[in-house]
């Protein structure tokens, strides 16, 4: 989405049709997407060279028209004495050279596009990935000093050149970031529905593809969330949380419902606490090996239990999926957790290998 918008704005800029707001938007997008800044700059430079050649061609044409008008009015252009021999020199129009320059520029543009595509393919082929299975967690330290804790069933991807100017990662799943501060190079976390831009702070991002929402919860510092479907930018303060729907509701897809889209797909709230202590934050409880849930459907809880315990949950009775639960699992086994849920709801379960069937 961002890449397409960048090239749309580049086209308007090169055609001298971009407004001041669009130029400002282009600058912001290039700043937030450093991997696109180089090819965009190359195209801009080649375009300017072509424009300069075209201007020179126009100047020559104007000069020729001026000479013709003077001759038509009988104004002498100049006089060369007869006794002065004039060497005959083949004079060729510069226009073919200008056409050649234009063609060369087009070739260069094609070569630049080919080079950049090849470079991106090679770069993507050497991308580092850290993954965790359901029931497991891990932590890593990136080249720039940033610490990342990765929750179960998650994947973090980043370039082999991470930390050398480029500080962008892609997250699928959940992770807690303690970002090393670099004023000139913000860290950008890409998720399916939003990008998060930050200089140095601590926050949690939850972006599982099977979940209904993507969330970012700020603990300290400040982060900027850029919503992909409408380019909205939201600054979060400590203890604030942003929630974005992973799929737009039908009413929000209509061009006549832009206001509804903004209201129904993005919400801003505060982090929640599962105990009296101010450090007992629900959104980061997984780092303390706790599964905290509040008024969640059995379907949503089952997804979390699959990641937390490393099992699979299947429902035989669809009506049971609508049951709602609130509680905390910490030291319990999966059997103990299910038995605790049975105290507040009537259901049965059986375990077949690593699969739990809810009746």
TrEMBL record:
<feature type="domain" description="Protein FecR C-terminal">
    <location>
        <begin position="290"/>
        <end position="358"/>
    </location>
</feature>
<dbReference type="InterPro" id="IPR012373">
    <property type="entry name" value="Ferrdict_sens_TM"/>
</dbReference>
<keyword id="KW-0812">Transmembrane</keyword>
<dbReference type="InterPro" id="IPR006860">
    <property type="entry name" value="FecR"/>
</dbReference>
<feature type="transmembrane region" description="Helical">
    <location>
        <begin position="97"/>
        <end position="116"/>
    </location>
</feature>
<dbReference type="GO" id="GO:0016989">
    <property type="term" value="F:sigma factor antagonist activity"/>
</dbReference>
<keyword id="KW-1133">Transmembrane helix</keyword>
<dbReference type="Pfam" id="PF04773">
    <property type="entry name" value="FecR"/>
</dbReference>
<keyword id="KW-0472">Membrane</keyword>
<dbReference type="Pfam" id="PF16344">
    <property type="entry name" value="FecR_C"/>
</dbReference>
<feature type="domain" description="FecR protein">
    <location>
        <begin position="129"/>
        <end position="224"/>
    </location>
</feature>
<protein>
    <submittedName>
        <fullName>FecR family protein</fullName>
    </submittedName>
</protein>
<dbReference type="InterPro" id="IPR032508">
    <property type="entry name" value="FecR_C"/>
</dbReference>
């Amino acid at each position: 989405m961002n890449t397409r918008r960048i090239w749309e704005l580049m086209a308007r800029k090169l055609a001298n049709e971009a407004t001041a707001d669009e130029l400002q938007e282009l600058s912001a997008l290039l700043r937030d997407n450093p991997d696109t800044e180089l090819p965009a700059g190359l195209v801009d430079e080649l375009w300017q060279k072509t424009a300069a050649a075209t201007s020179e061609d126009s100047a020559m044409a104007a000069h020729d028209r001026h000479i013709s008008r003077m001759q038509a009015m009988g104004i002498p252009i100049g006089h060369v004495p007869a006794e002065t021999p004039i060497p005959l020199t083949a004079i060729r129009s510069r226009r073919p050279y200008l056409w050649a320059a234009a063609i060369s520029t087009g070739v260069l543009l094609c070569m630049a596009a080919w080079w950049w595509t090849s470079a991106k393919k090679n770069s993507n082929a050497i991308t580092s990935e850290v993954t965790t299975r359901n029931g497991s967690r891990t932590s890593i330290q990136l080249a720039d000093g940033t610490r990342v804790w990765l929750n179960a069933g998650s994947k973090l991807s980043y370039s082999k050149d991470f930390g050398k100017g480029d500080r962008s990662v892609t997250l699928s799943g959940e992770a807690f970031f303690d970002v090393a501060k670099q004023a000139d190079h913000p860290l950008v976390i890409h998720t399916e529905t939003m990008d998060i831009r930050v200089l140095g702070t601590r926050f949690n991002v939850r972006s599982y593809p099977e979940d209904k929402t993507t969330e970012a919860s700020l603990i300290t510092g400040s982060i900027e969330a850029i919503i992909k479907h409408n380019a909205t930018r939201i600054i979060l303060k400590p203890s604030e949380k942003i929630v974005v729907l992973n799929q737009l509701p039908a009413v929000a897809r209509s061009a006549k419902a832009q206001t509804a889209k903004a209201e129904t797909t993005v919400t801003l709230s505060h982090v929640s606490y599962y105990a009296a202590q101010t450090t007992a934050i629900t959104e980061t409880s997984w780092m303390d090996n706790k599964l905290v849930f509040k008024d969640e459907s059995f379907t949503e809880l089952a997804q979390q239990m699959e990641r937390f315990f490393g099992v699979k949950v299947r429902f035989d009775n669809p009506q049971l999926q609508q049951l709602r639960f609130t509680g905390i699992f910490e030291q319990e086994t999966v059997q103990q957790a299910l038995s605790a849920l049975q105290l507040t709801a009537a259901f049965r379960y059986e375990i077949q290998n690593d699969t739990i069937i809810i009746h």
